[in-house]
Amino acid sequence: MVSALAVLGTLGSAARDARAQDEPAVQPAPEIEPTPSPGVQVEPAVQVEPTPAPRAHAEPPPEVAPTVTPRVSLRHDVAVDVSVTAGLAATLFTWGVLINPSLSAPTCTICDPANGKVNGVDDFFRSSLRLDGSTPGAASDILAYGVAPVSGIALAILVPMADKRGDEAALDVLLVMEASLTFAVVQQGLTAMLPRERPEVHGSQGDARARAITKRSSFESFPAGHNGEAFAIAAAGGTVATMRGYKLAPLVWISGGVLALAISYLRIAADRHYFTDILTGAGLGIGIGIGVPLLFHHPEHGEKRAAALRWLDGAVLSTSEVPGGRVVGIGSTF
Fold first, then answer.
1. What is the pTM of this model?
2. CB count, 10 Å around CB of 169?
3. 27-35 LR contacts (CB < 8 Å, sep 24+)
4. How far is CA 92 from the centre of its chain?
5. How many angstroms from the chain centroid is the CA of residue 326?
6. pLDDT for 117
7. CB neighbours of 287 closer than 8 A, spacing ≥ 6?
8. pLDDT tens string 27-53
9. I want to staple 137 with a disulfide (CB 3.0 to 4.6 A). Which of 174, 181, 270, 311 is the partner?
10. CA-CA distance, 107 to 96, in Å (whole number)?
11. How far apart (Å, rounded) are the C-alpha atoms in residues 257 and 236?
């Protein structure tokens, strides 16, 4: 039985092998390339690459207009400087307009000899320069209260514009005003503390003198204010222009100085001041006009000073005690 089944399995396997050999082998179908039609050109496929996203570019810095001279930044604080200038103007207005006119005439502190006599220096210049009439006094008022401040402000605007640095003009005007108002307040204070008869009052006699000495303005001879204010404006404007390094800085000094000298002459010619009044006012105006900008608004740290102020780099302030007091010395190395 088992032998019969084994024979049948063998025959079945032989039959399947025979059929497999008789069947043909299946070959894979060949790839058929497309045949273009006559007159039709087939373009090769173009691979499209994705467009990269645009990069974010930083905005270029704004272009700075070229200047004729290098910029020099001055030390300042606009809020403080405006407050100081406004405070000085308010003080001057309060004293000069509201308080001083209502005060009674003082007695002289700087008293000249009686009978119209005066020291030799003041007498020489008064005798040599005095003119009759009201023209010198009116001209000095116009120059001191009109021309000097207007020209000072105009130069503080036009001089930086000539160097293509007009954006600095507003600060320059503020610094000049600050110095000139400082002089005005100091001068008014000294005039109140040191009354001196004006030459025209001191030389008058009789009823004219009696009427004059009742007026407080008759004792406001020392120090002179008109020319001192003009010198303060010229010195402040010149100092600021020099520290900035403007090419027209000499023009500020020269024009302002000539105007101040003209006012000085007219005040003596009008018999309103003695020579010593004029000299003191000029010295005070120049000192304050230079000192305020130079001490409080000098070039910022690291800025190169203008050539005219390089001597300050070696400036030395020394002090030492001596019997009965102290000696202060100022020097400079070159």
1. 0.74
2. 17
3. none
4. 24
5. 37
6. 87
7. none
8. 555 555 555 555 555 555 555 566 655
9. 270
10. 19
11. 11
